[in-house]
From TrEMBL:
<feature type="domain" description="Phosphomevalonate dehydratase small subunit-like">
    <location>
        <begin position="25"/>
        <end position="104"/>
    </location>
</feature>
<keyword id="KW-0456">Lyase</keyword>
<dbReference type="GO" id="GO:0016829">
    <property type="term" value="F:lyase activity"/>
</dbReference>
<protein>
    <submittedName>
        <fullName>Aconitase subunit 2</fullName>
    </submittedName>
</protein>
<dbReference type="Pfam" id="PF01989">
    <property type="entry name" value="AcnX_swivel_put"/>
</dbReference>
<dbReference type="InterPro" id="IPR012016">
    <property type="entry name" value="PMDh-S-like"/>
</dbReference>
<dbReference type="InterPro" id="IPR002840">
    <property type="entry name" value="PMDh-S-like_dom"/>
</dbReference>
Amino acid sequence: MTTIHVKRAWGKPVRAQALVMREGFSPRYDLDRWNGVISRIGHSAEGESIRDRVLIIPTSKGGVAGGWAFFDLLNKGIAPKALVFGKLNPVMVQGAVLAGLPIMEGWDQDLLALVRTGDEVHLDPSARTLRFTPNPP
């Protein structure tokens, strides 16, 4: 099992499958907010559902509307389990806290090179760690 340390984290421990994105993510602009599927054409996770997954994202994008979108997704039953960003903005933090979604930022290893979509990840925000066992290719 590999352990990644993060700089900042908030929320409860979570275990779920990863959904790894290669570019920034906005819940308002990249997502069909009625079914929880990445709908932006050409997005690295296009066609993937975010429901009950740990989203691993290099950076956030978008503004104020992105924050409330997580709360909306939670109320629709299609929210992710947690958010793990390389770099994020305060609006995403506010949205995650409002929705009760664990959130992490800043990893000590290249998470995008190590974790693949479908790998099971274990987040422990109080310890500021993310653990996973890579699945064979």
